[in-house]
Amino acid sequence: MHDSILRRGPLAVRLMLAATLLVALGGCSRGISSTPGDAPNLEKWTAETKARPAPPLDPLPVMQQFETFEYAAHSLRDPFSRAFTDRGNGSGPRPDAGRRKQTLEQFPLDSLDMVGTLGRGAGTVALVMAPDRVTYRVRPGAYMGQSDGRVTAVAEDRIELVELVPDGAGGWLERPATVALEDQ
Questions:
Q1: pLDDT of 69 strictly over 70
Q2: Angle at the Cα of 171 (from 162 to 146), degrees rounded to 5?
Q3: 143 pairs with which residues across the strands?
Q4: What is the strand order of the sheet 135-138 is part of?
Q5: pLDDT in the model for residue 5
Q6: With the CA atoms of 41, 46, 50 and 54 taken in that order, what torsion angle do they form, in degrees rounded to the nearest 10?
Q7: Rounded-to-integer distance, Cα 122 and Cα 42, Å
Q8: 107, 146 in Cβ contact below 8 A?
């Protein structure tokens, strides 16, 4: 008995869906006008629209005349050529491209703080604290700062350096710099 109800159930549902679909389609067809007089009206309107003259086009814009200019500086030297920026034979100071960078060269010179010294006389070693909060020992000949700063002397109250900075014309200039002992 349960089998017969189950078999009738899906069939009843299918019939109900089919009936609903037929009613919906029947309602849609009533909204579409299918009178024979509508097609000639549409054809008449299309013919009238095609018979109308096209609206006039906008006039083309007037081309603006530009004043001509003759470049007469062909005989002068080119300001963008490499010869203009190179000075002499390049015998001045230059950074050593083959030198391995030292740890303190990754920090700007103004971010390094001298915090003390060890030893006396020629064997004096400076203690420098970097932004990474590590203290490093610095002797003459070491490098620090981002401008190839070579330490020339270590005193009890300062570190003296010579930095190489570009001169803006392809060369390099030596510039003295100092890192002083921090007052605490």
A1: yes
A2: 40
A3: 150
A4: 113-118, 125-129, 135-138
A5: 46
A6: 100
A7: 109
A8: yes
